[in-house]
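Bumping with the actual sequence this time:
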Amino acid sequence: MTESLVEEATTDEWSALNYLAATSPLIIPTTSSNIIPTTDEEWYIDSGSTAHITNNIRDLKDPKPWRQSVTTRGGVKYSTHRGIATAGDIIIDNCLYVPEWPKKLISVTRLAKEGWEVSFARDTSIIKKENQELYLERIGGLYKLANQQALYTEIEWHERYRHLPFSAFRYIPEAPQHLHTSKIQCAPCIKAKMTKPISYSYGIRTSRVGELLHADLCGPLPVQDLYQKKYILVLIDDYSRFIMTRAIREKADAAKALQEMIPAFEKLTNYQVGGIRTDWGGEFNSNSFLKWLSNRGTKIHPTVPHHSETNVVAERANRTIMTMIRANFDILPKAL
């Protein structure tokens, strides 16, 4: 078949193109039974079509005028433009825009020429190219590109979000609506949460944000991050349970980090910090740090030395952070 790109065509040129289109049409063997109205987002895989077709001009990037006949049992239709379209993760070259076409088509013949492999099976049909795989959804006797995210299993969603608790998926807009009610047990999470139970409980005893902050140092971690930091400084507001963290290299950096985090907390919340509770470790009782707290009117509330249960708020935050870190060790490279 002869094809010509038409940018500025005269009346005579259009007549010549119409003659070419009529004498050597593009054949797409479709029937009235399998042509169905669809939404703009649906792309169907057609093994009989020899061209990609869309019915929405907005699908085309930089469309160019292009007149070409498309023949079905219902008659002959003509394209008006041609361009590059995107269907999911597939870049479609030479996609025709046919205004009256009932559905969008991706040609298997064209896909094969572009290096894609198409596999149709009873349970799972896929399109793949190198390391890229796209799943197809069967609708009656037709196949369309499926919502790839919707095909993730519940455990895959959980792992892709770094072992986020299922209940928290209610706040993830793209997650399936039922995911936050999942009862699936994650083995790495269960293993990561195996800790000695804390017998001491602590309720909220403050009346406003910033009245008391709990601070503690978590680490050293088994691996360093890309910046050679192996400790995590945790700061928790007693009233709101709002948590701030800062990665540091050495324990000696904790006091300096707190001198930056406390003003940042006050600026964020518009509340002045009234007191800070620590385990009275050496990183928190340097003379310069104590003097800094005293000058700004911040009271010190030390816990009982060597009894972590008396600093339960900070220790519980440490446990949450370490649980997520340990759960991700199985899927993340150690360098990260």
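The tokens above came from a reply further down the thread. The helical segments are 11-23, 108-113, 154-160, 187-192, 254-269, 287-295, 312-328.
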